[in-house]
Amino acid sequence: xxxxxxxxxxxGSAASKGRGGxxxxxxxxxxRETEEMLSKKQEYLETRIERELAAAxxxxxxxxxxxxxxxxxxxxxEKQLSQIDGTLSTIEFQREALENSHTNTEVLKNMGYAxxxxxxxxxxxxxxxxxxxxxxxxxxxxxAQEISDAISNRAAFGDEFDEDELMAELEELEQExxxxxxxxxxxxxxxxxxxxxxxxxxxxxxxxFLVIKACLEKRADDEDEMKKLAAWAx
Length: 234
Hints:
Oligomer: single chain
Largest sheet: none
Shape: elongated
Distance between the termini: 115 Å
Structural class: mainly alpha
Helix content: over 70%
Radius of gyration: 60 Å
Number of helices: 7
Number of strands: 0
CATH superfamily of the domain at 24-125: ESAT-6-like
């Protein structure tokens, strides 16, 4: 068993034991500090690799021993740098998992609060009272609709009169107007002089034609007046 496994199996510091383990916020803070430390270590190693590479170029074949030592150190630094890259990837994965777990915990906690709030609200609700309330609302809506329909219907004022009787009375008025019009027609005076027999017949026909024409014109005027009167009465 490795030392790291023994360390984690042993339970870490006494403070963590007393508190029952670190909180997610504390763990995330530690992980970020570790990431920052390793990032600075990366920068240092990259700088040393550049220096050793420059030294190897400088010595070259003139001083093979110094050049080879510089290349060896460069290889060790590159190995350390590779290890740090792997460690950072592991820490980043662990940090993201812890952040997601913390987020899920907060979400579940808030959902629990909401469920408790809903339960508290529903404690004061009676399903029977809700049904009665909805029934009352439906009945009032029906009453309001009936009132609206009654208001929107046309009032039947004057429908108690018989339309046939009114038309009969209207026809009587029309006939009286026609009779009155016939009385007002002025016929032409009969000539005082005697006329020949045949010309007298022609004059008689002409006289009758004028009388009929005057009666028809008078009747047409009376019919127009009666139509206007009928339209007003309806």
